[in-house]
Amino acid sequence: MTNQFAEMPTDWRRALAIVAHPDDLEYGASAAVATWIDGGRACVYLLASVGEAGIDTMPPAEAGPLREREQWASAAAVGVTTVEFLGHRDGVIEYGTGLRRDFAAAIRRHRPELVLTLNHHDTWAGGAFWNTPDHRAVGRAALDAVADAGNRWIFPELVEDGLLPWDGVRYVAVAGSPHATHAVDASDGLDRAVKSLLAHRTYIEALTKEDPEAYCRNFLEGNMAAVAERFGGRPGVSFELFRR
């Protein structure tokens, strides 16, 4: 029998989502974000890049500002009001102390109890598709930065900048993981998640010939239905959960 997903914990109030590109959260996790915000929780989005290399037919100098604007509209669709961009170069984000420092600084600044990131493993579910270097680098750096944020002797310059250690992260949730363990019933967030993904219209129109709205709805409904098979029939969003 397939292992069933456990319920995601609810004993937290503030989340920080750390991902590589615009649209990373919208391909699934945003329905959970909408549900959390409905429950009175807060979520901040932190993006390592503006996704300027994501549209083959559009030069990065043009694509970057456009994708940034689309991400703001996308976040607003699920109730997120704070979006920050770090300006790392799309496609060649490198794991290392610089990336960890940037993420640790954001964790100290926003003081979340839950950190959300995207699949950091080598492959996506089923192992048929190789993950991208940006996703792997950002996901792994986010996991490491949670510990960095709580240690005053790692990146002591952050303390000098007024960013005191924060060891209050209780959970790290990895969306899109092939090793998911928990899920959120996100039925009520589906329509807003569709709207949120659809906000990346320029990117989606470059990605597929399908009608954008049908593409977004079919993708998200399909993912949530797959989660339902291991979540008591409830459409949801799954996560690999690490407790601290």
Describe the structure.
Keywords: Zinc. It holds the Pfam family PIG-L. This is LmbE family N-acetylglucosaminyl deacetylase. The chain is α/β, with parallel strands linked by helices. It has a single domain (6-243), classed as Rossmann fold, CATH 3.40.50. Helix content is 39%, strand content 16%. It has eight helices and eight strands. It has helices spanning 30-38, 60-77, 97-110, 133-149, 156-160, 190-198, 201-207, 212-228, and strands at residues 6-7, 14-19, 42-47, 83-85, 114-118, 171-175, 182-185, 236-243. Strand 2 (14-19), helix 1 (30-38) and strand 3 form a beta-alpha-beta unit. Helix 2 (60-77) runs antiparallel to helix 6 (190-198) and helix 3 crosses helix 4 (133-149). The longest helix has 18 residues, at 60-77. The radius of gyration is 17 Å and the shape is globular. It starts with 5 loop residues before the first strand and ends with a strand. The relative contact order is 0.21. The mean pLDDT is 96.
